[in-house]
Design brief:
The structure is a homodimer. Chain A contains 6 helices and 9 strands; from the N terminus they run αββββαβββαααββα. In chain A, strands 1, 2, 3, 4, 5, 6 and 7 form a 7-stranded mixed β-sheet that branches. In chain A, strands 8-9 form a two-stranded antiparallel ribbon. Chain A starts with a helix and ends in a 6-residue tail after the last helix.
Chain lengths: 235, 235
């Protein structure tokens, strides 16, 4: 059978839509946040949603994720990692749409989301502020959150969420926000410093009321070697 | 706009095929192996391929993976984990097909693959024995192998590939096969035993020429706790 005839024979299978959805995490200094849009299109008009849309027939799904995140929120140069594909039969009211979810951790201060295309709003929200979400986006978000919680314990990725120079208190706050727990300050410091992933700077915080704390940044070499091999952040 | 009209407006997007491909790893006692089929259908007729096929419009992709693996190879009750979705525009000659790859580690002695449906052969092959593979299956396999190599160093999952009771030499052989390296015997034993993931049995190997070695199995509780939290297997 020719390819053309074979394609014809299988045409009933070629009726899927493919979409991408982006889970972008940020940290506002006290809470873990997620970039959400308000939908200005059906279905789920007016609902909060992850930035996502249908993939075009002529674009790779990885490229589509970058393009769609930019189209809806204005964000550029965001590194997106594939999370998981969600393919339940009934997940989309308009037809059979399989969605591939991507996720990213970004330093909020570097990006300024603005709604565009059919997104009415695009903004950061903490988990507690979220309303009912469109489609299965709550499930996708939860899957991303579970992955983030696993990963920050095994890889030094959490640091992506911080400014380049940060205090140990900021780092502890971030880990507490992501893992939704509280750490003992002395233990946390001892453990994180023993990993030798941080470089102490000859600088302290500016414009704070309390005694300014020392600033740190990563040791990039050590950071990359740990990020690759994995480490256990057991605090 | 009604949902129906909206679906109509977007119909150009609904022409994707969705497939699944399964990377099933086994261990024959000396080499890491992969379950492959020989294709008896176009495209790539006669090529070696991962067991995979198009998803039906009315099945979840996770269900499809289980169904298709069984259809082509006869394997039942195989736990499949999602690996990654591959969505390059040109990856399939018959049209735009996005494939979600799944992977699994199984104890070869418990499963007996047999070809069925349009698979002409279904059998275990070591990496070195593989011919040119259909589609982007070589890339999918490599991605699965990279994931396996990362995971066996961070989680005690490699054990899934062994019989329930095994010797330390078998375990070392498995880790050497997966990581494609050689370990010092004394160091390997010391490290693996220090993790306390193994239970020493009051049993030794049977029917071997050399002095029979002690058999071990997991401590399931310890195993699950480590599998969940992650551990670093640095040998």
């Amino acid at each position: 059978m020719s390819f053309k005839a074979e394609r014809q024979r299988l045409s009933a299978f070629f009726q899927f839509g493919q979409s991408v959805d982006c889970v972008v995490f940020g940290y506002d200094g006290s809470e873990l946040q997620i970039l959400v849009i308000e939908r200005g299109a059906e279905p789920f008009f007016g609902y909060e949603a992850l930035p996502g849309d249908l993939v075009r027939m002529d674009e790779d799904i990885d490229e589509a994720a970058t393009r769609i995140l930019h189209d809806l929120t204005g964000l550029n140069n965001v590194f997106l990692d594939q999370l998981k594909t969600f393919g339940s039969v009934q997940r989309h009211p308009l037809g059979r749409v399989v969605t591939t979810a991507f996720y990213s951790l970004i330093n909020q201060t570097k990006y300024n989301p603005r709604p565009a295309s059919w997104a009415v709003k695009a903004r950061w929200k903490s988990l507690g502020e979220l309303h009912e979400m469109a489609f299965d986006h709550r499930e996708i978000l939860q899957t991303a959150l579970d992955a983030l919680q696993r990963q920050v314990r095994q890889h030094p990725i959490g640091f992506e969420l911080l400014p380049e120079e940060f205090t140990l208190a900021q780092l502890q706050g971030l880990y507490e926000a992501v893992l939704n727990t509280q750490f003992d300050k002395a233990n946390f410091r001892k453990k994180i410093l023993s990993m030798e992933v941080l470089k102490a700077l000859d600088k302290t915080q500016k414009a704070v009321r309390h005694r300014p704390a020392r600033l740190y940044k990563f040791d990039p070499q050590r950071y990359h070697s740990l990020a690759k091999q994995g480490f256990l952040f057991e605090v």
